[in-house]
From TrEMBL:
SMART domains with a match to the protein in the record: FCD (SM00895), HTH_GNTR (SM00345)
Official protein name in the record: Transcriptional regulator, GntR family
Organism: Methylobacterium nodulans (strain LMG 21967 / CNCM I-2342 / ORS 2060)
Top-level taxon of origin: Bacteria
InterPro entries per UniProt: GntR_C (IPR011711), TF_FadR/GntR_C (IPR008920), Tscrpt_reg_HTH_GntR (IPR000524), WH-like_DNA-bd_sf (IPR036388), WH_DNA-bd_sf (IPR036390)
Amino acid sequence: MLNKTPSISQADAAYCRIEEMIVTRELAPGQMISEKRLSEQLGCGRTPLREALQRLKLEGYVEIHASRGILVAPIDVMRQLDLLEVRRSLEDLMVRLGAERASAPEREHLRALARDLQDAAAANDRTAFLRLNRAVHHALSRVSHNEMLASTIAVVHGQSRRFWYSQFEGQGLFEQAARFHGATLEAVAGGNADEASRHAAAFLDFLETLTRNAIERRAAYARS
């Protein structure tokens, strides 16, 4: 069932829940899913569910086939390098604007997110970490106070999050990611644009290393 609050629409709640199911591979890449079954599982009406699925289609999470149903899109490892190239410039702009424009309450919220994310990583609470990671992305884009930037980077963040979540399993990398994010959040909250930029770039270097390692593993498997 959807965990919907009064401040979020049923379509938004469905979107968040299905995205989480795809990112955590509760819905696996390449899996076909029935709209009717998904509606029943989520306790969601057909109209808001279809709104959520159209959004997920636009963001590359699913493919919708009229005769077959809904296909969970595969994870394209090579595409991650393209995503990271785009993300670097957007992320730099986002954290710099946030450091300059965030209000005092927003800065306190960023600091609280940094603490909560590190606590979730230390507890190895994967579900909490995923939800907080999404909240971090949303909060950083929001404090830029640039709606065009926020909407553009949301798609990149979602696809990037899906990939690296699949790479972190069993590797003990959540705490490293939490430290990178925490440092960026603290810098933005402190109004230090250059420091925020450095920490954001370091995190993307970390993600690029994970991506290239995944590509090398795939190539080695193909040769074997």
